[in-house]
Amino acid sequence: MFTAAGVDLLIDTRSTYVSLTNSPYLAHVLGTALDVYADEPYYPLEGGVVKGLVKVPTPRNRGDAEPYDYVLIVDVGEGVAVKMLHVEPSVRVGDRLRLGDYLGRYVTSGYMMPWSDHHMHVEVRPASDPLRVRGAYPLRPTPEFFREVSKLPCMGTCRCVVRRVGSQHVILEPVDEGYPCAYVEGYAGLLDAGIPHYGYGGVIISGELEGYAGASVRFLHEVVGRVTAVRGSVAVLTPTKAFSVSGVRVLGIGTYPLFRGVKAILDKETPPESFRGVVELGVNELLIT
Predict the structure, then answer these.
(1) pLDDT tens for residues 235-267?
(2) Enclosing domain of residue 270
(3) Are residues 156 and 140 in the same domain?
(4) CATH (domain of 27)
(5) Whole-structure pTM value
(6) By CB atoms within 10 Å of each CB, which of 53, 79, 125, 218 scores lowest?
(7) In 3-state terms, what secondary structure has residue 18?
(8) Dihedral over alpha carbons 237, 241, 247, 253 (to 10 degrees)
(9) How far apart are CA 171 and CA 161, in angstroms?
């Protein structure tokens, strides 16, 4: 579904959604990391050998954070390694891995925001430089990814049903059968973003994006940002609007390319349980000039 340096990350889209650009961390900003939201963490490649395991202390971005996170390094040959975070591994150095192998227990990492769900962070890197924040290879969607998403209809309504309530967020599902799409110069793509709270996001579009810099990005029939960079099939946007849920201003919304819901991020003073039933997702006034 995604590829870098000749290595394919094979994601089971029946039970898993992903994100390239719904994260504040540098590797995502650079287009070199993928977050994989599977029910359980599994190995997303055909083969490899575990070469390293590092246990690192974490900050306290959330009250339920565990004191340690883990970095798992797997050598996949040809001078390439895969780096994975946010999983306490059940595998050990020297183990040979196959596609779908169970990797361990998700960690509630202190690097995650209070509204973040369990996921595995994945990078494809030079085997000689497996641990740094920078230096991973750019990830690109494969033709198989675009064939899969071409079957997905776009949400055409602002009306959503509250499906789940978290400590600082609510999951909204469109009342129609659509997925969160955005439009760049009239071309539909999948919105992959945490806007405006992360300050940027992406629209994944099949085909070349030459000349799209400066173009407007529309979501829910409103301009919500401008394209400031192009990375392969991803139009990187800077947000220009804020959002609300039934008239209540929220910190932002999170969208994921294969996830039908929209995550509305709340401030600490807004009780999530106050949202129930059918709500209206709105685009607010200009946020950034």
Answers:
(1) 999 999 999 999 999 999 999 988 999 999 999
(2) 152-286
(3) no
(4) 2.70.70
(5) 0.94
(6) 79
(7) strand
(8) 20
(9) 8
